[in-house]
Amino acid sequence: MYELDAAVTHAINGLAGHSAALDLLMIWISSIGVPLMVLAVAVQWWRGPDRLHIRHVLVAAGFSFLLGLGINQLVLLLIHRARPYDGGITNLLIERSADFSFPSDHATATFAIAAAFLVHGSRRAGLAFLAAACLVTFSRIYIGTHYASDVLGGALTGVFAALIVRAVYREGSRADRLITSIL
């Protein structure tokens, strides 16, 4: 299985270095993708006629994001996977990272947002966020900082977090009414 993971990772990262413009675009997407997605979630707070439902989804996306990253921190206590550039699998286009490779926080964060929208019935926004999440996670492999399985693991963590939040944080509950009535 590692051979397949390394081969897929190497193939995607092998696209790097042929176009300076594409390299810069992938570096930019990798660095700004998560903050842009968080901003895209936050600016919707005052949107639309179904404001309370939208706010519920936005809060659920935030909780999913935080829970997913919290789960990652627990996983990182148990799994100490070296980065693919340390193993000679990829050529790194950015500065080295000080933490371990598995799971990808970028993948967890972006897929948690996308999954939260999808599981709460916001299909159109959810699919847009899903496309953005795929682009961000692809960029992480492209720039050489993650294995393909790192982003897959992160994506699964993000989806799992969104499902947990969906089960626990109920729309219309007392806590939901309190949070969604802010501003």
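(the above was protein one; protein two follows)
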Amino acid sequence: MRIVLVGPPGAGKGTQAAFLAKNLAIPHIATGDLFRANISQGTPLGQKAQEYMRAGQLVPDEVTIGMAKGRMEEEDAAGGFLLDGFPRNIAQAQALDGYLDETGLKLDAVLDLEVPEDEVVKRIAGRRICRSDSSHVFHVEYSPAKTEGVCDVCGGELYQREDDREETVRKRLEVYHSETEPIIDHYKTQGLVTTISALGAVSEVTERAMQAISAE
């Protein structure tokens, strides 16, 4: 199966993508992973991306598209893939359409993870990260540390990342609404979109997603 996963920041796309990819035995292709792999391998596209990132500029669509195409052409993606974070705007969606047309492939589904905006803000702004080990993550409401401000695992200081502050989250949501959300309507015209509530336990959301895919 070939699936695109869409949703605002804080919707749990990465978590759901990992579960779905494992259940469906297809690779999880995430934009962040593409960038890291190309940069670490020193590919021409990775070098271009790094130039823009060092200058504090957005990586152009053509670079991201090139990375995504290269990954979709790898052997493990021959039987399908799950795209997470790509496409992120109409230009990228149109480029993906063109690539699939050229290769004689098609998308099977676009899963739209829906979360109320206030819940997104609560989820992200409540995160607290350990300064000693960033893999130790807590939440002031959903998974609080036993002692406020102190990591349960190693005793390190817990802090709120700049990206997780409420005003930053709301700006990220504005970008999502203006740039990424329009691709949902783009894919609705192709009859591919299923909207899924991303509220509740992770397993419940995964079950909804699997049911939506099996109905395709």
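Reviewer note on protein two: The radius of gyration is 18 Å.
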